[in-house]
Every structure is written in structure tokens, then in C-alpha cells.
Amino acid sequence: MEKKRTQLVDHNRVFTNVMVWPALIILLLTSLLPIIYVLVTSLTDMTLITMNRGGTQWVGLKNYIDAIQDKDFLHSIWVTVKFTLLAVVTETIFGTLLALFLHGSGRPSKLLRTLFLFPMLCPPITITLIWQTMFSNSYGILNQILGVFGIAPVNWLQDINTAFYSVLWVDIWQYAPFVFLLVYVALCQMPQDLHEAAALDGANSFQRLRHITLPYLAKPMTVVILLRLIDTFRLFDKVNVLTKGGPYNSTRTITMYIYQRGYNDLDIGVTSATSILMTLLILLIAFPYIRSSFKQMVQRR
Amino acid sequence: MVLKKVKRGIVGLLAASLMISAAACGGGSKDTEETTAAAEETTAAEETEADAGQEETAAPAADSGETVTISIAARGGSHVDAIESVKADFEAAHNCKIEVSGYEAADLKKNIMLDSTKPTGNFDLVMADDPWMPEFTEAQIFLNLTEAGYEADSDLVQQCLDIGKVPYGEGDQYALPFSGNVMFLFYNKDLVSDVPTDWNAVLAAAEQVQADGNLGYVIRGQQGNPIVSDWLPIYWAMGGEVFDENWEAQVNSEKGIAALELYIKLLETGANYEKNDLVAAVSDGKAAMSLGWPSWYVSGSEASAAYAVIPGKVDADSETYPAGMIGNWMMGVTGNSGNQELAIELLNYLTSAESQKIMADAGGVPTRESVLTDAELVEKYPHFPTLLEATKASKVRPRHTNWSKAEEVLGAELSAAVSGVKTPEEALAAAAEAMNDVIK
Questions:
Q1: In what order do the strands lie in the sheet with B125-129?
Q2: How much is the pTM?
């Protein structure tokens, strides 16, 4: 009996290894090797010219030091952090309110739910191009609406006072539905007996929201916020299409900075170093989530 | 028990198939490596044979019945259509196949860059936007055409031909002008009856239009390349130079400040729009004037606005300078092409007068004087004579490998000035300092 059990354990171990290793090897080849390559190039002065003509030199941490001292790079970090915080907070509030509204309205229609999710279902570039048309000075619907009320047209994407908030609005419009979706799913899974018991005890709807619903939503919302923080931090497509980082760098995010150094200037060394710095920043944001995930995994074992 | 055995068997089979698939992929790549190695050997043999001469090299492929493939990396859109419209004759005459890959500008640059690092590249001919020329030649992406026996063709407009020379205008030829392009002054005839010939006249006309209730002059003030391209013609018309002979930035000179002040005055008569809005505004008569590239307003024989050569002087009495920005798309043979001789022949064919005439009907823009003045074509494309005149009065952007970096910092500071964040003096002083940092 004992022998059979040992055999079974051995078989399971072999099975696990056979299942895990191929995936792990592919992951190592496609993820780890490029990361190592980027790390190595970040320590060199590699450019398109040195790539082809030779002469790439080892410069140690110079690219990192230059990046940290580059006021344009620091400004792009500030723009990214400001954008991320404003976008995630607003998306979370809008998405949660929408989910609470729909969940509290009895039996919401499927059409309404689909409509709410529509912005999230479209590719980001499509959404951005649609909004670019709507922001247009010559034929954009926003300025036409303003015109109906006798308000002068606004130069949404070229005015330094409005460009940042215009891009921000597009992001909120697209991703508030993401928050809505996850919060709505969590609300649907919430045990109703707690609410029923509280109602019997005389708690009104605001008290039930404050003491039952919101504490229940805390965990799923933490995950949603972290996912949105990580995603928003990598914002690129909207800025590249709508403003190219301007006016006067007011919408130049880290990814835009890296893109410009990489694609326009072909500075591979500097681009690699700034990419590593950005990854570290994202890891810093994601650290609480990764840590709690590991804790949960250990607890389960 | 039996069920468990069956289950284990299925799982084992799946795992084995996964391992085999992985192994098969490995085997495949080995095959590919072998094929690549064989191809490189063949290429090396071809290159050795090629040294004997162009005709001798082209002949074996035809004699042996093998079809050589020439691959072109092109800017997508009308350039690809133009090549496609003439390639059949060359394919038939040389028993070869021409593959044209069209890319968006940034992708084109990236793909050329990556391909250039291989011992034998996938691309035999590549297109390059003219500011890329210093970078591309420094990185040895192009084959030296002069060393390969190319002799200058006087029919190609000199200003276009010069772009493909390194050093600019006087060195060896590395690329030929495939598609002509130079900025124009566009204006709406309903709002501006007489085309202004100096910048003070442009300002006066714009102010008059503004006083009549429309937008006078529209700038393209988007940060980066757009605002730099939009401002430089005014600076050049004042006789300004971006750098001196020692590569010291000169944009903060008196001429630079005067040019930026004039630019802001022009903005005050109109608006700061991105390209599509700018074209729509001038075409629809909401705005009077803007600078722009011909393809924005001109399509075939139709133009949505009137056009003229960009003024090269500040006022009627001042000296005239070349001020219209030239922006040709160049084409060259790659240094790592496996079919260099045939590629050179194809390049000569694509830039020949006969091909340019055919390509004009497919959206191509000629770079030869004989084609730009061809009576039949001028009847169909009335803007060709203006294009020739503007090209002859054009100016090239600074020829430096780090120009794109300098353009980026200059663009940011110009954006600060038109946004009102900095005065022209402050913006241009900061720009000059930053440009000096990146150019060295």
C-alpha cells in the first residue's frame, strides 16, 4: 500500500515536471533573455551607428545616471505619475458608481450593460482616433456643441491648458467600464443574507453601502486599482496619436520619452536604461499586489 | 482503475506531443539555420561573381532560369503604388521578382535599422526620408553608389540629388531622389486675392483677413517635427541658419528671435491646428493661409487651395534666401544587399524619366526637370512647375546624425513659446543650449 502511494507521488511529480518545464523554458527564452539583453545594452553606449560600424563601448551606469539627471526624463515621470493617479482615481469612482447604480436597479438590461462596456471592447487606437475627430477644431462635435451655446471653440489638443485633460478624459472614458465590470461581478457574487439581516436590523441603504458593500468590495477593488495603475503607467498610444507629448512636454509620458529616444534618436543604450527604470517603477507599484499574492499562495500550501 | 490508466495514458500522450512539438520547432530552426547558411554561401558566391561586372552578374540568374527576388522597403501609400505601376517591365526584362513592403515612416526606419545589422539583409533597396540620410550613411546602411560606378545625372534636380550626397552636396552619392517634396505656401483665393511674396505681406494679409472675421494664418504648432518644419521657413527667409560651421546652435540669434516673434504674430491672426484641421480650415475658407506639403492639398490635378513658393524674404526690399523646406524621399541600395548589381539597375530604372512619367499617374512625384516640365504631365498636374520652382528655391534641414534630437528639443521650446509659457528669447536661449548639448 505504502509502495503504491510512493509510486503515485513519483508519478505526480514527473507529470508536474513534464507539464511545467516546456512552458517554463519557452517563458525563459521569450522573456528572460530579452530582459537580460536590455540590461546588458543599458550598460553600453549602443546606437544605430555603433551597431553597424562597431565601437559600442561599455559605459557602466552612465546611462542610468544621465537619465536620472535628465530634466526631460524626470518631467516625463512626473507627467506619468500625475496622469496615472488622476486617471485611476477617477476611473475607480466612475466605474464603482456605475456598478452600484446598475446592481441596485433590480434587473439591469443586457443592452445597458453592453453599452457601458462598449468603450473597453474597442481597440485603444480606434477609440483614440474617434476622440481625435471629436476634438477636431474644424469638424469636431465638441466644438460644434459649444458653438450652439455661443461658446468659442476650444483648441483641445494644442492648448497647454487643455491638452493633458483631454488625453486624460479619453483614458477615463475607455477604462472606467473596466472598473465597472470587475466591481459589478464582485457585487453579483456578494452574499445577500448580510444585506437582508442588516435591513431587518433597521439599517438604511446608505448604512448598508458603507458597512457591508464597500468593505466587501475592498479586496476586488484593490486588484482593480493595481491593474489600472500598472496599465495606465504604460500609457503610450493615446499620447502618440493625440499630442505627441506636447504642448511643451505637458503630455510627454515615460513611454513617449522612451519611444522618442528609441525610434527617433536610435539611442539603444539610453532607451534600454530608461526602460529598465520604468520597469522598476512599475514593479514598485505592483509590489504590494505581488507580495499579497505570494502570501496567499504560501497560506494555501 | 481502468479509467485512471486511460486518463494517465491520455495525459502522457499529450505531454509527449508537446515535447515532440517543441523538438520539431527546434529541428525546424536548425533547418532554417542550414538554409540561411546555404543562402549566405550562395550570396557570397554571387557577390564574388558580381565583382566581374553588372551585366555578367545579372545574366547567370536569367540563364539558369532562377528567379532572383529584389526586396524594397518603401514608405507605404502612394510610393508603393508608384513602384507597383512600373515594376512588371523590369521583372520581365531581368527575370526577377520585385517585392515591395510598405511601412509607416517610424516602422520603415526601425525595419531598415534592424535589417542593416544582418550580414545579408532582406532588403535590397530602401527608401529614406531625407533627414535620415546622415544617420543612415554614417551607419553604413547605404552602398556607395559613386564607388559602384554611378555618374550624376544632370536631369535630376540638383537640390534633390544633393540630398543623397555625403557630405551634403559635394561628396559621394549614396541615394537617389525617388519622390520629390517641398513645402508650399497654401492660401484660399476667396480670402487672399494676391499671393504675398514676403513675410510682412503675409502678416498684413493675415491681419486683414482676421479683421474681416476669418482666421488669418494657421500654424502647425504640434510639438516636435511639425512646429520645427512650420517655423524654420520663416527663420530661413530672414537669412538665419540653425547651426554655424562649428555646429553651434544659432537659433537664439536676433534673426531667430525676430522669426519667432513674427511666427507668434501670425498665430495671433489665426490658430494653432494639427495637420488635418489646418488643411480643412484653409480648404473650406475658414482660414486664409498656412504652410504645408503638397500632398496635403493637392490630389492629382485638383488642389483644395491655391499654392505658391514660400516667400524667401522678410519685406519687399530685403534679400531673398532659399526658405522652402525640402523633404524628398530618397532611395538607395543597401550595403548588405545580396543582389547589389541588380538593385542598382532597379534603382536607376525607378528614377529614370520614363518610369517617373508612368509613376506620376500612380501618385509618384517626379524629381527630374524633364518630367516636371513635360507638357502632357503639366496639363494633368498643374502644380509640377511650382514644385520645380520651389525645389530650386528650397533649403535642406541641417545634415547631422543628431539632427532628430536637436529637432526634438527645438520643437519643445518653440511649443513653449507659442503656448505662452516662455518668451521667444527665453525659449530660443533654452533651445540653443539644449541643441548644443545633444549635437555634440
A1: B96-103, B68-75, B125-129, B329-333, B176-179
A2: 0.82
